[in-house]
Amino acid sequence: RFYRIISNDRPQEQPAGVSAAESAAALKQSQMLLESTRQTALYTLTLCRNVIAILELTRLRKSRVGLLYWIEFWDQYYGRRFGRALAAQITYALGRVDGLFRAVASELHALTQRVVDAVTEATTETEILQLLERMEDEVGVRRRRRRKKAQSILNKMRASLEAIPVRVNDELLDDLKRGVFALDIYCDYYPGDPINQDPPPDWTD
């Protein structure tokens, strides 16, 4: 591969006045820049892979703790029978959200590994940058698709809760997203917010 790179990058005709030594030095510098770009890209991809894992593990941990707290609150405030009816609807939705986020996290890991392999084999800086740009676009597509599906799941959960009946306004739904699902109001990861352990006013109105 090294010799193929040299062959592809070497000009067909050397400009007049450029010595073989100068040409070799320019080629060496080009190769050094390529390797620097490659190593930077691989480091960035490693960070991406770590962030994907950390975000998903954090979401799982926070959602489990949040769910247990809210179930305890519902049981105390509404009684076990009514509280369990609420918990059943939310637990079902949480299972679907978990499956969705795990699947997308797995896709993103696989995508990152494919880009790592491609960057390792890339022969020009331009190729490496294009690989990263395409990956960013693909990640954006998956995030938007995941967000749309998660919103649909939670909207169906909201309708199920209101059929019990429990009034679920926008503020309460946002509290459930953060406190039980560890998501922000748009249904993306929300790992930085402390677990919402104080029941929102709407539950006690």
Automatic annotation (TrEMBL):
It comes from the Eukaryota. This is Uncharacterized protein.
